[in-house]
Fold these 3 entries.
Entry 1:
Amino acid sequence: MTLSFSRLGTHAGLALILAGCSLGPDYRRPDAAPPIAYRQTLPEAPIWPTPDWWRGFASPDLDRLIADAEGINNNIAAAAARVRQADAQLQSAGAGLLPGITGTAKDSWQRSYSRVSGRSGLITGLKSGYTESRAPQVDASVSYEIDLWGRVRATRDAALATALASRFDQQTVALTAVTSVATTWFTALSYEDRLSVARRNLADAEQILAAIRARAEAGIASELDIAQQEALVSGVRAQIPGLQSNAEQQINALGLLTGRLPEDIRVDPGTLNALSLPVVSPGLPSDLLLRRPDVANAEAQLQSASANIRAARAAFYPQIEITGSGGWQSTALATLFGPTSILASAAASATQTIFDNGAKAATFAQEQARYDELLADYRQAVIQAFTDVENALTQWRYVSEQEALYIQAVAVAQRASDIARAQLLAGTSDIVTALQAQNTLFNDLDTLAQVRLQRFDALVALYKALGGGWTVTDTEQPAPSLLVNPFPAAAILPRSTKAP
């Protein structure tokens, strides 16, 4: 069908009116009622994490390691690359909302020779018996699909939601990397603390062994007493290589987290006892979902799936496309752009699949099933978010109590060990009593170092469960240049209740 330009304008106006049509349904956030309160609560007033929460531990080494991870960590770099991929996909999906324009320039040239008889005539014909023609042409064509059923917009909306999901995923990866650096660093410090305890215990045990040997030379201690203390010394000494190995492996793990080879890692672990324990306390459970990038990612993917369902439903309806072309053509280059050389044409077409052996229906069913899958994932992410907070609060509460109890236990064991050693050296106590006192002290000191690490880990887990200071409003939106849309509509925004 051929249309005049006036009729083409009428059809374009109608397209503008109908382009807002959508087959729906609009996206609605699934019901996910948060708990009224957490089962475990802290006595402090609500204090949400800040974006640089790790600075509360007052460890310059940790600050440096996290800064390295944020800049070099390969997982974070890969997540950033996925954001760029999603942005490119969004730009590609939005391109169909504007007309496509194609320009063509060509110049045809033709020479025809006349047929003459005789050899001399042939020579004459080659010189003057021909005709020549030239036809330069410049034109441009425009094509535009009228998005009557919202298929193109739905495809763009799905890509927009995917672009947002990639940003939330990047934040999740970054939070995981940062918390992994913190827990790995604290573990390295804990092994250093346990090494310090083991070396101190070894020195004490060797000192007592020397005293027992002296008593044996004086005839007031037996070979059995010496053997028992030597066994204790050997057991304590045997712990040291394993602790050293574990400490060095944690340093190597820091290299992996900061994007460096093990040989390039230079850190000098200190002690957990020198670090501060910042205060953090969760606010209302209803605010948690605004602070978890993994939950935001799950919902953005659900929004994308909802838009894909709309696009798949729209595919059942005819596709209407308007095309137009215009240009100049002339038999002489000098008159190419003259008024008499103008060419113009316009056409509209509608395409409808009559039979596709169920391909579109299968695609639609697949998108619906994908939505159901992501719906289950979203609900699971919500439950997981509240569970993470509850677990972190529970761990923090009980491990804090456990640490306080072990501090008391170490104080009592230290006093008992001091008394048993003094009595042993004075000859008023047997070796068995001294051995028991030493073992109790050594074990309590080592356990206290492990429990202290658990307390730091619990605090980091709580920071991570609360989103690490992230909020939805912190997320950088896709660049406006990517949101090509001649028919403005509400964008898919994080935490929105309606789809575009």
Note: Strands lie at 100-113, 130-146, 319-329, 342-351.
Entry 2:
Amino acid sequence: MSVSTAQTSLVDRALPTIATPPRGRSRAVRTRYALTVLAFLLPSAIPLALFVLGPMIAALWVSLNKWNLLAPMKFIGLDNYAKLLTDPGTGEVFLHTVYYIVGYLPLVYIGGLGLALALNTALKGRSLLRGVYFLPVVTSWIVVALVWRWLLSPSSGVVNTVLGFFGIAGPGWWTDPTWAMPSIILASAWKDLGFVMIILLAGLQAISPDMYDAAKIDGAGWWRRLFSITLPLLSPSTFFVLVISLINGFQVFDQVYAMTGGGPNGASEVVVEQIYDLTFRYGKAGEASALSWMLFIVILAVTVIQVRGQRRWVTYG
């Protein structure tokens, strides 16, 4: 038997002892093993139960009641869900949320990919540029919203001033029902470009340069290398970005609340803002909890579809 074969045999015999619970042993040994695993999981499991699972179960119970946060709850079963499903306003806020996602996702991905490709080259000062582009990600949304409200101000904003210099009449942006959501999409994409850039840049740096060298020898141009090597091997990072961005897109709230407050005339009102208004403005915590669970089911369904569909286009290794 060779040395490598012996080493492999030793590893194979050791792995089951480490990675799997003991089999064919006494109940005391199995119990001790389970308690050991539980002890390692507790630091994460306790906060998860207290701050995620607990509030979710509580929200489910509240959704079955009529409650204004002050008076005692009154059990009404599924009436809150039935009311929301027959309310045209529910469909509108979901459509506004989907509108936001459809505009935001391509913009932030293409922009982040462009930055990642540019900063993956031997560009002078690229480390500084990476930090500069990532800075908006860690900036408060209130600050970003105030800056973009000023930039997109119809009367004195920088954007309309520049457009006017070229003889173009700028739109009303966040004061116009037609342009309110595009204003939010622009601000959101600008803020999140750095996050997408970092994820895709990490994926780009994991691709072996030898593959590009071989493609160049075969005469493949830049676009050919992009679509035949870069994008397929970048698909795991792309999948992660799409899943996270879609989840965050369905939960969009801060920028809407800070920039437009859902206006004008409800043109930019999204699901989470409707949940906020139902709870704190109209005192309908039961309906708000029901709407939050409806949103959770939608997000879960979309995520499951993404996870199952990744097998067709995501390339690992």
Note: The first helix runs from residue 3 to 19.
Entry 3:
Amino acid sequence: MKTDVKTLLLGAAIGSALFLGYSFRAQPVPQAYTYRQFSTIESVVPGGLGRSRVISSDEKDQTVEKDLLNFYSMTGINFKNVANNDRLIVETINQFVSEGWELHTVTTGVNDSGGGQGGGGGTGIFITRYLFRKPI
């Protein structure tokens, strides 16, 4: 019986030490970040009549725009324009990363002004937002 009481007391002492040691540990401070974003707006207007851009703000909150090429030409989808736009978007991402920003979130959306599939009009935009963050 003495062994059982000693074992029980030893177990209680170890359990209390672990609980107290864990309970009084300093809580980690969440990392604070500053955020920066750029957006791409890519037009889906036949004949190359739409306007497509990369839009961002610089450190002085001045709007910076870079032209993107339209997806469509008079003959349909222009794959060279798509490849050119991809290259410009990746260059913009690489620029932000080289300045110490981390790509945090990418959000996409579509606006079909023509009323959806078969709705006519053939106009709309693809918008993508690239959110970056950097520790403060």
Note: Residues 33-135 form one domain.
